[in-house]
Design brief:
The structure holds two protein chains of two kinds. Chain A is an alpha/beta fold. Chain A has three domains: 125 residues, no CATH class; 258 residues, P-loop containing nucleotide triphosphate hydrolases (Rossmann fold, 3-Layer(aba) Sandwich), CATH 3.40.50.300; 80 residues. Chain A is built from 17 helices and 23 strands. Chain A is elongated. By secondary structure, chain B is α/β, with parallel strands linked by helices. Chain B folds into three domains: 249 residues, Metallo-dependent phosphatases (Purple Acid Phosphatase, chain A, domain 2, 4-Layer Sandwich), CATH 3.60.21.10; 82 residues, no CATH class; 101 residues, no CATH class. In chain B, the strands form four sheets. Chain B has a six-stranded mixed β-sheet with strand order 4-3-2-1-13-14, with helices on one face. In chain B, strand 16, helix 8 and strand 17 form a beta-alpha-beta unit. Classes of the chains: A alpha/beta, B alpha/beta. Chains A and B meet through strand 13 and helix 10 of A and helix 4 of B.
Chain lengths: 523, 448
Amino acid sequence: MGIGIGEADYAGQIVEGEDGELVLREKQGAKLELGDLVVVDNERVKYICMVSKLEYGSLIHSDRILTSSGSMLEGVNPRLEFPDKDLRIFRQVHVKPLLEVSSEGGKQLARAPRSIPEFMSKARAATAQDFSFLEAPRTSVFIGNIRSGSKTLPVEFSMDGERLLSHHVLVSAQTGRGKSNLVKVLLWEAMRHGRFGVLVMDVHNEYFGTPASPGLKDHPDASRALVFYSRSPPPGQQLLKINLKSIDPEDLMGVVEFSTAQEETLETLRRQHGSGWASALLAIDEEDDAYKKSKGTIRALKRKVCNIFNLRETGAGYECADGVFDLGGMGEETINDMARALEEGKVVLIDGSSISDDTGLVIASAALRKVFDRYDYYKSSGILGEKAQVAVVLEEAPRLLSGAYGDNVFSRIAREGRKFRIGLIAITQLASVIPREILANIGTKVIMGNEMALERKAIAESAAQDLADFDRIIAGLEVGEAIVSSIFSKFPVPVKVPKFEDLAARGGKEGARPLNAPQKRYF
Amino acid sequence: MKFAHMADLHLGAVSDPKMKELESSTLERAFTICEERGADFVIIAGDIFHINIPDLAVVKEAVEVFKRFTDTGRKIYVVYGSHDFSPNSTSIIDILEAAGVVVRVGKPAAHEGKLRPEVVTDRRTGAKITGISGRRSSLEKEAFDDLDRDYLKALEGFKIFVFHTGLLEMRREGEKFDGISLGALPEGFDYYAGGHIHREFVDSSGRVVFPGPLFTGWGADLEGTVLGERRGFYLVEASKGSKPRLEFIDLKPFEGVHKSIDATGKTADELNDELRLWATEVDAAGKVVLLKVHGELSSGRTSDVQFGLVREMLAESGAVYLHLNRNALRTKEMGMVTVMGESAGEIEGKVFKEMMGSVKGRDGEPVVKDEPATAAKLLSALRIPRQEGESIEDYFARVSREARSILGILQKGEDAGRADGGGDRASGAGMVRKGTGARMPGWRGMSR
């Protein structure tokens, strides 16, 4: 019997099962739900299990049950009851052992189950104390509270930020299940440390925040840990203005589809004109005899370049319609600034709401290429370990990671980013489209609700732990509920991600300067 | 309306008499052109003077030029620059304003926690002019965060915003300076008159403009001028609602000639021969000469190179001024040292240790005891810049005294106590001032 546990507190008793799944007879009234955590206490060892299946059990012959049901439904004998009903009719609860926690010398050690509890052991609902074996990571990134079914336990689940980000993260969820909230929580946590550089293309401009809604701008360390680029930045933030010289043809690969002839032309332009390749391309007169053979290629390339950078031809040459890209002397350092900020452990947030997704990806590619260059140098100089761990949040990742349009910086990060301290936070509804070898390379999967069986299957098959029996649990996850399966966690951890607004309200306003009466001297 | 937009005059920055003359005549020419071309007013976007209390002879000449212009009923609107501003003492700008020579725009006022810079209306044209003054180390940045933007946007009429702050989007690749984002400028102005960055710049809207320095006869900017960068100001024709018409008035302050010599693999004697031959042949009469010598000598010391002789030869041939850049000249006898460290102090300490024993006296022994400590003390003393109100002579004397004291070669009878501190004015001797030591790559683009 567990310490302080009375008979009334038990939820069930093991009546059959094997190492992969135990079956409990549920105590009447315990009302266990899918996803609930139960604990089986044995001497010096306890097993933490998750409810994976619920079914009825009955000791009454089925003919009799059906007859009784008919009598009640047809009104023949509506008050018919079975004798000893509580003993003879019950629920059977299938639970999956997640963890074996043993006590040795007052210390608790957790590991994946290698044994099974004693037959007829009783099970109880998990409590916060059952997770006292969890140790605070070195650079703690809070993900959420441990959850037993739909009940949130007062146990915070955090992961080591260095490991989490270096080994990539996949957030799998359908729309409306709390992906954006989770990303905001992760970014908020990253900013707390100031040693994780995270690049985020915020396609809906929902992370920075507005005067009316909290966002990362409300972080107590926002002034030193956050840089925000936008076409119309609030005071103190940065204008998104990028010189085309900062973009390499390589940054378009994987985002824009090019024919072999177009790729070769781009390469030639880069070789001949260096960073001025785009201007050189736009300056080509395709009617010129020198381009007679490649007229079609040049035209197509010009069209693609104009589309991706939103360029239009005017009497005075080309100009960027939305002003983000510059063909003159502005914004030459913007990409370098982004790379530097990432290296300094800042969150670099780019408002992608008024640019196309592909344009955003090109900008992110350019910044990450710079980071790769710098980190490659640091690696060869033996000082990479002193630099901030960098990550990029990649929304709707499959197209890029699948390499549909060729190799790109994102697939490179997925493959070899770990060696360079650059990781991915890939967010997708369609994990099944991501190549298996890339999925296998992702150390942590945060699995949120998904109604598509194919997607659940794909993510379960690539998880760090065996999630074969979790299908219905994943299907039933509500907004903000997740299962974290990580190579750095000994069990698939059910968590409830806090609402960002609550997190911001707890820690965001301290130290913020009141809006009125600034204590400053102006001249 | 028509107005002139100047910035970064840095009057008083040059010490060479001939360069002073050029500086003064260029200023006079600029204002004569403004008058002749019918400028209704002149905007100077900061750094009229090189320091907040400049030499009075420099001020007198400037006031004469300014007064001639304002006596015609026209105004000169200014903001403080990072050089002629002082948070603790009066700036010469305040004195000029009190005397009615210039009008400082954008004086701050707080309104419900927001900054509302004072808006001045030019009587002649009705133009509304405001702005934010520059401060040292771009400290004015936070003022942009607190601007009452709605108030400024609601102002009616032709509006000009004057500022002395670099725009981050202006930086060339690899160039580093602090500043604000273009987006930090308040919306709705017809013209943004910028200063602080020492080069011409016009943004794609044609409304955000930096004319670069008017003259620049010093430092890396002088190199730019000799190498062909335009120096002057913008004459702006503008009216409400239309894009301003900009005309750059190139003042061509001086004619220059430049020479770059790679000393790599040469001995000091060979380099001397090459320099002498060049100095004999170059047509330097009436020109500013830029001589850059770089690379690694195969033998001999850098001090063996006879730059003094070259200077004399050029002066004899009528050169206005020689700007010598030998920062990148090294010798194998004092090879490159690579060290790493967390702070400037740590790096300096390691370099001094590495270089220990490399300078010896005639007897072959080191000339000072405990070289790293002595070098650190010397560097620390040399870091203390010229103090407010300290004349150049006093400054040189103080630095010399302090250096000789540290090296232990102070003559008998000299005031060792003064050498340790130089009196009240230099009481910071030995103290390392933050921000005065290291120069960032790409610093040539900024006000100094």
